[in-house]
Amino acid sequence: MEAITLGPWAPEVELFEQAGQLIVRADLPGLTKDDIEIDLTDRAITIKGERRQEHEESDSGYYRSERSYGRFTRRIPLPDGTDIETAAAQFREGVLELSFAISEPQKHRARKIEIADAPGTPRAKAAAR
């Protein structure tokens, strides 16, 4: 799965098939459903959002944060057979879950291809005799 990520941080995503459904989950801690936008085409899902920084300083003046903040865009390609008309989304406890009906997975075949000698090379001329 190749995903395109733009922004200072990117939510972690998992994609799997379960009982004839394609499930996509994105970890979006610290966001609400109003912070998230989902765009869908027959080729990909694009999840956009922003995690806003809330800075609270104590009297000591010391503050440290290792969390990433800012806008993000995450594009996830969809496999063949994904029916985007059946898309449903839920957001619960910081996890966005999208589900889609999928048709029979495409069977991918593999084979080896032998590389032929180019015409005019000494080996090709010898094989032609």
Overview of this structure, please?
This protein has one helix at 122-128, and strands spanning 4-6, 13-18, 21-27, 36-40, 44-51, 70-77, 82-92, 95-102. Helices cover 5% and strands 43% of the residues. It is elongated and about 85 Å long. The chain has one domain: Immunoglobulin-like, CATH 2.60.40. It is built from one helix and eight strands; from the N terminus they run E-E-E-E-E-E-E-E-H. The longest helix has 7 residues, at 122-128. A four-stranded antiparallel β-sheet has the order 1-6-5-4, with no helix packed on it. Strands 2-3-8-7 form a four-stranded antiparallel β-sheet, with no helix packed on it. It has 129 residues and is mostly beta strands.
